[in-house]
Write a structure and sequence with these properties.
Helix content of chain A: 25-40%
Structural class of chain B: mainly alpha
Distance between the termini of chain A: 13 Å
Structural class of chain A: alpha/beta
Helix content of chain B: 25-40%
Strand order of the largest sheet of chain B: 1-2
Order of helices and strands of chain A: HHEHEHEHEHEEHEHEHHHHEHHEEH
Order of helices and strands of chain B: HHEE
Number of helices of chain B: 2
Radius of gyration of chain A: 21 Å
Largest sheet of chain A: 11 strands, mixed
Number of helices of chain A: 15
Oligomer: heterodimer
Number of strands of chain B: 2
Number of strands of chain A: 11
Radius of gyration of chain B: 22 Å
Largest interface: A-B, 75 and 55 residues
Strand content of chain B: under 5%
Strand content of chain A: 5-15%
Distance between the termini of chain B: 40 Å
């Protein structure tokens, strides 16, 4: 019997009822990766020995009634830029080729302490810069629903891995939509927690005021289970919040009766694909039928979101990536011609194009003569986004919108024009700017059988509210499907 | 033009990035387009608005000022220039 086409919570039950073991599940996932990943490209690094060792230890704990956590024994994967001592961590970049970190990220440590089995590292856009996984320096990743299409990005590998049943969950990162957008493109569920909900210690930084680690899995219940494991204050991350972590899974309630749901009109305009609009409207109707009150909102600053985000994230990235200079870790080129040459050649030849483009943009907006016009201005506009959401959440309990303007696009379709790629993120970016939480779950398919995602956004630390509403939507929509490639 | 070749030459030097001529030609055009796009922020009235540097403004917590365990030499051994507890780099001062 195969356990591949099951959710994380379902295999937790199977493990509890002794219908399977962690070693069996792990072996099956490893086989699935070997069979399918050649075509998909979701995994960069594996460590079969370590994974089976962890699985055997879990089975031993289960035998002795000493389980660590609900997810003890479940095989999962993590995005490449999340550090682990058991695999290389390269952020899908040549500049970190072969780098093995001397410590685990806090989220990695938490997964291990919960007994989860970490199968491998997921492919991604280099340094999390991208929306299609086409910027990975090592290999492309394709959408399991249609291999000519992108899985989205930057957590494209994480999304594809879960979609193609190679793991029961993955940790992605989300700076401008990089969990939610690939989740939508690949037909799975992905949650960006509130800024500060999850520690960023040991996560390779892209934009420190925007980055968050979050769960990507088949179902809302799965994301709830993983979130409870990884969330919480960490004294090694001074931006993590001292807010108690609820048991999101046990508290899960499929109910929206009496809730007010905001529909921002600016998210439903020109550029929104018909099939996406139709599926999202259907989701709104489901909420209404289940007792929610639908409230039209206006968020007039939405049109400035992409510009604000790209100034701030590029500026922060230009600072964060200055550490990659060939000195302390990663590859090193050109040292025979002196120190300056070592810096310039290492970075010039080993960073990919999109990374270099954003470093230049970021350095420019921070440079003398331009700082006030661009960076300082963007930080003030950012305040307006936070105010808009504060105002919205005084009227509604959560907000619903499409996750992306279109379903997954074809590989190569947008990578010749960086700006058209950036405009993909229009619906997801505002949540990162304001630091609030957001989730994407599947709500339909287009006429080419490509998945469509619906997004719910909640105010800071209201993950339970959006999980509950998503749980209801998921149950009513009942579209848990696997791409044909899984079989 | 919002972003000229001279800007690119100066910025790539500051960012310690050596770019090929083909990259410079391409980047100048692409970044010029992006900078033009982000100039839409000029329309936004931010009078009396204070900047929001990061979302949890009042949350920053400090650790007690006590030594904790560090990685020690493990932090250095990944370097391509690691040698006996040190990192070798090209001469800094001529």
């Amino acid at each position: 019997m195969s356990f591949l086409k099951k959710s994380l919570v379902e295999v937790v039950k199977d493990l509890k009822e002794n219908k399977t073991s962690s070693v069996t599940l792990t072996k099956e996932c490893i086989e699935q990766i070997k069979r399918k990943d050649g075509k998909i490209g979701a995994i960069l690094y594996t460590n079969e020995e370590k994974a089976l060792e962890a699985a055997a230890q879990s089975d031993e704990r289960r035998k002795n009634n000493r389980l660590l956590n609900t997810i003890d024994g479940v095989p999962v994967a993590i995005k490449d830029m999340i550090l682990s001592v058991d695999f290389p961590s390269t952020a899908a970049s040549k500049i970190l080729e072969g780098y093995v970190a001397p410590y685990d990220a806090t989220v990695t440590k938490k997964l291990k302490e919960a007994g989860a089995v970490i199968l491998g590292k997921n492919n991604q856009d280099e340094f999390a810069m991208g929306s299609s996984n086409e910027n990975s320096a090592f290999k492309p990743c394709y959408n399991p629903w249609n291999l000519e299409h992108t899985p989205g990005g930057s957590s494209g590998g994480s999304a594809a891995c879960v979609s193609a049943a190679m793991a029961y969950g993955s940790l992605g990162t989300d700076t401008g939509g990089s969990i939610r957008q690939p989740a939508a493109f690949c037909g799975i569920t992905g949650l960006k927690p509130t800024y500060g909900r999850v520690s960023r210690y040991g996560v390779i930084a892209f934009a420190s005021s925007l980055d968050q680690v979050g769960p990507m899995a088949r179902t809302v219940e799965d994301c709830a289970a993983i979130l409870s494991v990884i969330a919480g204050y960490d004294e090694k991350d001074s931006t993590s919040a001292q807010v108690a972590v609820p048991d999101y899974l046990s508290n899960l309630k499929a109910c929206v009766k009496g809730k007010k749901v905001g529909v921002p009109k600016e998210y439903f305009t020109k550029g929104l694909d018909d099939s996406v609009q139709h599926s999202v409207n259907n989701s709104i109707e489901i909420l209404r039928k289940n007792g929610a009150e639908i409230v039209e909102l206006s968020m007039p600053n939405t049109k400035y979101a992409v510009a604000t985000y790209y100034i701030i994230s590029a500026a922060e990235a230009s600072s964060n990536l200055s550490r990659y200079d060939g000195v302390r870790y990663g590859a090193r080129l050109g040292e025979e011609k002196g120190l300056l040459n070592m810096y310039e050649e290492t970075r010039g030849r080993l960073f990919g194009e999109e990374v270099k483009r954003r470093i230049v943009l970021g350095t420019f907006v921070l440079s003398s003569g331009y700082y006030d016009a661009y960076y300082a201005k963007a930080q003030k506009v950012r305040r307006l986004f936070a105010n808009d959401f504060k105002e919205a959440f005084s009227k509604v309990d959560f907000i619903i919108s499409p996750t992306t303007p279109t379903p997954s696009f074809k590989v190569g379709e947008k990578n010749s024009d960086p700006l058209s790629m950036y405009l993909n993120d229009i619906y997801t970016i505002s949540a990162n700017l304001a630091g609030i939480c957001g989730i994407s779950l599947p709500c339909g398919f287009d006429n080419k059988s490509l998945p469509i995602g619906v997004q719910l956004m909640g105010k800071a630390f209201d993950e339970q509210v959006i999980l509950d509403a998503s749980y209801l939507l998921q149950n009513e929509l009942n579209i848990n499907k696997y791409p044909p490639i899984v079989d | 033009m919002s972003f000229e070749r001279s800007d690119l030459d100066k910025i790539s030097k500051l960012a310690r990035l050596s770019l090929t001529e083909a990259e410079k030609v391409r980047f100048q055009k692409e970044i010029d387009k992006i900078v033009d796009f982000v100039k839409t922020l000029n329309e936004v009235d931010v009078e009396n608005v204070s900047p929001l540097y990061y979302p949890l403004e009042n949350n920053l917590s400090l650790k007690p000022d006590e030594p904790t365990q560090t990685l020690g030499l493990k932090a250095l051994i990944s370097s391509k220039g690691y040698e006996e507890g040190l990192i070798r780099v090209p001469r800094i001062i001529e």
